[in-house]
Amino acid sequence: MKFFFHTTLIAPLISFLKQGLSPEKLALSIAFGVAFGIFPVIGVTTLLCTLAVLVIRLNMPATQLINYFVTPLQLILLIPFVRLGEFLFNEPTLPLNVLQILGMIRSDLFGAVNFLWWTTLHAIVAWMFIGPVLIGILYYILVPIFTHLSQQIAEE
Q1: Quick check: helix, strand or coil at residue 92?
Q2: Is the dihedral of CA 117, 87, 74, 150 positive or negative?
């Protein structure tokens, strides 16, 4: 498992620094990749990350790498975002779990969208409170780490 994470996540991130990507740009790319990667709408995170890359001029490979890595986290956080949205809008709890939602999407995409429309909008609003804060926190945690790594690479 350690080898998997090193070869598929850590080594590529280090290679971005070796190729001249600034620690700030890498940290921002990762922060947006995580935040948009956990967006509570299945199937749109790649598009959101691409838009962020184009608008903010982030690093596409780094952002998408992180986006794909956090896909399990997106599924884990789907129901918490739904519950937070229900709380924010004082809605009754929808008795669904992630597997049921995925099953609905697989069997009848348009029916699932119709049934989950308001629930999804409420989850997106909940994400809108958390996403920007998460980006800020991750950015300020990652910049010093990548700055240190970048200095070590320069000394090699």
Answers
A1: coil
A2: positive
- Is the pLDDT at 102 greater than 90? The verdict is no
Q: Note the pTM of the prediction, 2 decimals.
A: 0.89
CB 121 within 8 A of CB 22: no
Strand extents, DSSP E, 23-143: none
Q: In terms of Cα–Cα distance, which of 127, 126, 128 is closest to 88?
A: 126
Whole-number pLDDT of residue 98: 78
pLDDT digits over 47-59, tens only? 999 999 999 999 9
The residues, any chain, with a CB within 8 Å of residue 23's CB and separated by 6 or more, are: 17, 142, 143, 145, 146, 147, 149, 150
**Domain residue ranges in the chain:** 2-155
Cβ neighbours of 16 (radius 10 Å): 20
